[in-house]
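Recall the central idea of this unit: under ordinary conditions, the amino acid sequence of a chain determines the structure it adopts. In this exercise we apply that idea directly, starting from the sequence alone.
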Amino acid sequence: MKSPAIAPCLGVEDTQASVDFYEKIGFMALPAGDDPADDLRLLLFEGEFALMVHRHDQLREWLPVLKDTPVGAFGMFYLAVSDFDAYVARIRPLVNVIKETEVDGRKILYFTTPDGHVIGVNQRQEW
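Accordingly, the structure predicted from this sequence is:
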């Protein structure tokens, strides 16, 4: 697997609960290393690296500058899928949809994760 140019690592309240949520909507989780005490997980989507989740207290210990940062994020992440309509039909009952829109003829569905991160789903495209 090729590492991406930038790799998001999201602080979460409960790593297993987050992994369960992401697996429910089509991701696959892997341990990030060999240390069983480390709660970091890699998440793949359609066989490719997508992001990491790490329990907030361990992330704050790793980077003390984050000690007062709340869980969640200001901003959003986009998930490009191979078949927008099929994927959205599958996850709609599993997520909290906060907005549906269309930009330049492309549909986007936004939902929140249990930790308050916003993900926008759109059709995968070549640039």
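DSSP finds three helices and eight strands in the chain.
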